[in-house]
Each structure stands twice: as C-alpha cells, then as structure tokens.
Amino acid sequence: MHKSVLRTLLVMFLVPLAGAVAIHAQPQQKKQRPSEPQTEEKLAREVRHQLILLPYYSVFDNLEFSVKNDVVTLAGQVVRPTLKSDAEATVKSIEGVAQVVNNIEVLPLSPNDDRLRRALYRRIYGNPTLQQYSLQAVPPIHIIVKNGNVTLVGVVATEMEKNVAGISANAVSGVFSVDNQLKVESKKN
After folding, report:
1. pLDDT single digits (tens) 33-75
2. Do 97 and 75 meet the contact criterion of CB atoms below 8 Å apart?
3. Residue 136: is it exposed, middle or buried by C-beta count within 10 angstroms (0-12/13-18/19+)?
4. What is the separation of C-alpha 107 from the centre of its chain, rounded to a whole number of angstroms?
5. Which one of 3.40.50.1000, 3.30.1340.30, 2.20.25.10, 3.40.50.720 gives the CATH number of domain 111-184?
6. Are 150 and 120 in contact (CB under 8 A)?
7. Residue 63 — φ and ψ, nearest 5°?
8. Helix (H) and strand (E) counts for the chain?
9. Among residues 165, 153, 155, which one has the least CA distance to residue 185?
10. Which stretches in the chain have pLDDT values below 70?
11. CB 3.0–4.6 Å: which of 8, 33, 174, 178 could bond 169 by disulfide?
C-alpha cells in the first residue's frame, strides 16, 4: 500500500514538473537555433530605438546607421569615446544582428569646441522659433563641432526652422563655418 501511494504521489508531482521543464526548455532550444531572419526594416527600427536609449547620447553627438541583411554599419560623430563602444556593444546585442561595422568618428578634445557647443546650444535652442525642440528627451537638432566647424543634423518641421537654426549657428562668435544638413519634415512654412 505504501509503494502505491508513493508511486501516485510521484506521478502527481513529477509529471507536471517534467512538463514545466519541457515548457521552459523550448524557448532555450529556439534561441540555440539560428534566429528567423528579420526584415531589414524591423531590424532598423530596433537599432534606432537602442541607439536613442544610450545614456550618454546627446545633442552634440550624431549617430547614423545602415542595415544590409544582418550587417549593421554605424557612422556619425561622438564627443565621448565610450559612446562609440557603447553603441557597438548595444547593436551587437540585438537579435538578428550578425556583424557590426563601427565607423563612428570620435571628435577631438578641444576646450574651444566645448565652448562653441555650449554657445551654439544656447543660441539655437534659446531662439523662440526653436524652443519647443529643447523639451524633447533627445532634441532633434544635433550640433556637431569639429575644430570650430559646425554641422547641424537632424529633423525640423519647416524650412523656416531649418533656416533659423542655420542663421543662429552662424551668429555664434568663433564659428568658422556652418554646414546646415537639417532635413525638413514637411514643406509648409
């Protein structure tokens, strides 16, 4: 009698436990198999999302990327060398990415460029026409300064805002040149 009760208890407890182990083992087996190919568009959305979430990504950095099959190529300019390595590590960890080519340029250390970055930020985001952009977590107008030369990249709503940003940047003392590469969301003025 004791053996049959013990056998019944074992069946009652071990069979569901074995089923639970099998359920948890299935996702692990899926991960071991090559992942299903993601579309480039879906992969690009995930890469963009992960790059924007980087903790030290700021308006003074420009991160760009391209996706071809399962290879992601990073480009752009960053102020901190750690941001370059963080971007690569983050993109490598995304499921579906087989290789990362890191072409991100680390901008040279320069107290003058740092002064210009602060002055440009105040001039551009302090302008009443562009102030609403400063409220976003990562403002859309990125200010890249390299040896006194300024490049504006990002997206604004109108052509007028693009022009105001360029004029504001040109008005900062010590700026050698301004390359206004801002893209316009719509053609309304």
Report:
1. 344 445 888 999 999 999 999 999 999 999 999 999 889 999 9
2. no
3. exposed
4. 18
5. 3.30.1340.30
6. yes
7. -110, 125
8. 5, 8
9. 155
10. 1-38, 186-189
11. 178
